[in-house]
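Q: My collaborator sent me two sequences in one message, no labels, and asked for predicted structures for both. Can we handle them in order? The first one she listed is below.
A: Yes, handling them in the order given. First sequence, followed by its structure tokens:
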Amino acid sequence: MGGFSARVFLEERNVMSAQSAHVADTFPRLLLKHASVRPDAPALREKYLGIWQTWSWRDTATEVREMALGLASLGFARGENLAIIGDNRPRLYMGFAAAQSLGGVAVPMYQDAVAAEMTFVLDNAAIRFAIVEDQEQVDKLLEARESRPEIAHIIYDDPRGLRNYNAPGLMSLEDLRARGRDYERAHPGFFDAEVGKGKTGDVSVMLYTSGTTGKPKGVCQSHEAFITAASGGAEFDHLTADDNVLSYLPMAWVGDHLFSYAQALVAGFTVNCPESADTVMTDLREIGPTYYFAPPRIFESVLTNLSIRMEDASKLKQRMYDYFMRVARKYGSDVLDGRPIPFSGRVAYWLGNLLVYGPLKNTLGMSQVRVAYTAGAAIGPDLFRFYRSIGINLKQLYGSTETCAYVCLQPDGEIKFDSVGKAAPGVEVKIAENGEVLVRGAMVLKEYYKRPDATAESIDAAGYFHTGDAGVFDNDGHLKIIDRAKDVGHLQNGAMFAPNYIENKLKFFSHIKEAVCFGHDRDHVVAFINIDLTAVGNWAERRNLVYSGYIDLAGKDEVYALIKDCVEKVNAELATEGELSHSQIARFLVLHKELDPDDDELTRTRKVRRGFIAEKYAPLLDALYSGKTVQHIETQVKFEDGRSGMIAADVKISDANRLPAVARAAA
């Protein structure tokens, strides 16, 4: 497995438990190894009531043992599934290890899903046990239990608001741990024996897909799969026990499970949980993580807010910022990659770091970041250049739930803005004849839960997982992802149509939050646009453009002119891209509402449900293709309290200029 893996995984002895003869090849054994070798080092932190609370590796192992034995006392059995629901909390992460210690499987679920959305997963995974964060999640599970009484035990971490609850099977984590201590006195050695029975090939976690085209599928991943991905990534980026990560993305998402659970247990670094979603930026500055991950929308939001703040700054600060950002764009990437630059450039960049880049990184909470990753969607070249130019080692990775988010990584010094990097250590990647990306390695899923048909469709006889993505390799072996293979279509003239590729180009503009393109089997391409209310709202206020809310702002002629400029810039880029030059956007509209997971228009990971949107907004789509300039529509929406309502609007439709195809200029 290589020198790093051997150092991390293989321990001759584990003085804390009877399974000392086993190597640390499962997550519970990795946990016990750290508790034995470095018991007082910080494993987990949580900010609670403004104060950071710390769990050492010894503390963590102790609580996991008590939780696991408490579950055993309630009848939790080997092979059983444990639902875990809530924001990122140390004891919820401990819940993963507790289930795995007994040979069970952790099933994290999205904390912002409503009870009705949870029902499918609860039923499909045959959930009897759940560990949840707080009253909100308890209420949802009690509601779900009305139609699914099999949910026998609901265990909560935060007791606030639950004092007068007396539902059967409801208990606090403190009570569960107390039961665990009693169970250990009655069954000494039980925990160690159960951990010892674990096999590296056992399923450790089940992560459900986003379900863009149908019901979500449970992706069964083994200890071996995630440990392979975690160790490969840790070796690749030299992660050590001295690193820190801020854990704030959904625990049900594969990226969080890789970075905040698997890699933490492999490398031994500290996982920090913010107090709430509203305090993430403050907590980020306090922790100063060395290892950071965020989807492109987070990086985009941060840069948008920075741009808004700079517009409010004094003229002197604006001039200084603009000057040193020009210096950063010219020399920053070379400085980061260690390439030689002129002495004058090095001095200018040093001064810029002192006056602008350093304070800026400190404000963003990224002053200590050694490695920052983004994935899940394409990131704009300008956005990528900005972060790297100020000294943040931002890179892209490529993977999926079925591959433990581990397929391609970008090596330091070989960063390309339009690729997702090279095959990660231990991963084989090839392109099928139809252009689909195929991957093979230990990180590939074991199976889809209760779906042998889907498993057989996704993994071929040679062991290659069919990703469903269309891609190509460049001359340096870097992979470029074009679109989802199933979404790649053709215009009526036979030219390729890659909607996601075009949508990502549109979303590179800070004023555009979401985009959905249509054109398959049509003679031209059209687009639905969601504006970014913060960015466009600030833009409008600076122009004394009065508006009453999203619907009003989205319909303004001035906003349409702003978005048209963005669309036509994308068309200019597409004009240089060969066959894709035919996919320039002919007509567009700005939707009267934001696309929302609660309205089933996006998945919980914010992937577009294109088919659903086309059906829901069929009158708008028909209007785009029939030449209309305005279309009335009434749309049902769901409010945060669960109620439904209707909104109506007259949506304007605008034409966009298209350019003749031209050859791309040499790089």
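Q: And the one she listed second?
A: Here it is, processed independently of the first:
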Amino acid sequence: MPDHLCISIRFLGGAFHGRADHGEPEWPPSPLRLYQAIVAASAARWNERGRLRQADAALRWLEQLPPPVIAAPPAHATQGYRLYVPDNVGDLVGKSLARGGEGSIADYRTEKSVRPLAVPDEAAVHYVWPLATARAGFDEHRETLTAAVRSITHVGWGVDLVVADVSILDESAARGLNGEHWKPGANGTGTPLRTPAAGTLDDLNHRHHAFLNRVTANGGLVPVPPLTIFGITSYCSASQAPQLLQAVFVLRKPDDSGFRAYDAARRGLHVAGMFRHIASQPEIVRSVGWSNDDARRIILGHGETRGDAHKPVQDGRISFLPLPSIEMREGSERVVGSIRRVLVTARGNLVPQEFRRLTHRLDGQELTDEKSQETAAVIFRQGGKDGAIRPYFEQSATWATVTPVILPGYDDPRKLRRRLDDSAVPLSADEKAEVLRKLDARIEHLLRKAIAQSGFSEALARDAELDWRSTGYWPGTAHASQYEVAEQHRRYRRVHVRITWHSPDGSLLEVPGPICIGGGKFSGFGLFAAQPEIAT
């Protein structure tokens, strides 16, 4: 069997401070982060601060390998700590001192919250590449690569101390590595991690040269360019919720005098429709780089050719999810209120740059009421996630619907309920119990199907603990039958659902949001919010 190259890093301090592109915690550490650590360690190992020579060929071989499989232990968020960072105001302090003042840089500090991930003590993260097609290159560079990897001192911040090593594993040993196994995926719903690519080393050398020469002869400062040559790979694990591209928009009145609020049960579908209408306008579609057919597929959800019967879209698609505010009421009770924000997400294979162009173009647009043709609201991109919508994005083992799940199929295809209602042929108690058991089994099957169809792994769908009913689990939600739905969904049953996620070993598993499943999930039906207090 082909051997596998395995680079292992073992954290010594129990914490990892690395952050992803938008400041969120990064786990597992990206292959690019590991590659940069190897490059830095190579420069230190052979004292080549200006230009890499000893490890150049080995690093170029490594950057062209396909994305590795990553085996990583679980990492958990922490309360963190605070730093007080000096502001860049040395010129002001200097002027004060020159005038005989008592200026001090200690008077200019900014509070900074730091929330590292907690990693099990001395836990190892393994990066595994198959060597079936690259063995000759590895044999050539093995000694250099091993020396470079063993010279790594930290991955993440400078305080994230590690020891690292290289090993060769057979297929069985590679599969048996401890930790969650993260594999490169192709459906775009995993965790996006940066990976090295051909040219990454040259770009790192260019940045290093720019850093060394950032101060000009006349005292000017030349900004150091960001790293631009790398890949982004979607990584998935068996216990991971799908990670979606996302942007939150706030609904404002046309005169910007306050929020524009909509009732969640009666007007949620209307809000999603207004968003879909403005996003599909030709001028916006063209600015993103899409054709009209692209817009029909990605925004409107039409996978069929014009004139044919409707066909669901199998690839990338945009979702418009109205977010009812979750408000604090008297007695510290959280209650579902009106819609004041909308979450725009992308499912499937959609180019991140195109999604960002779309959300940029939507910022500041006017939503038009279909009946009156008047401006109903103005939408603005919201930078953060305030308390009213934070439960949609938290990490929790227990989640409950804010809008009901539309089952992806008939809940009673065998017409069993007719037997319960048939007074001419009364059923015994045991017969009634058996009919109800079959009906519940059908609903449970459809709910697990909906979970899997939304991008969750089969393991998560199988091990989830499910409860359902017609009334909501959140205060303020309406009866499931009272929500206005599209014509094609009216024949399917709607239920409120509570999910408690479990690992295969039965332990509670905290899953991050957003979570939206079932029919109508592209318009905000089957939207869940975290209920962490239930899981404790």
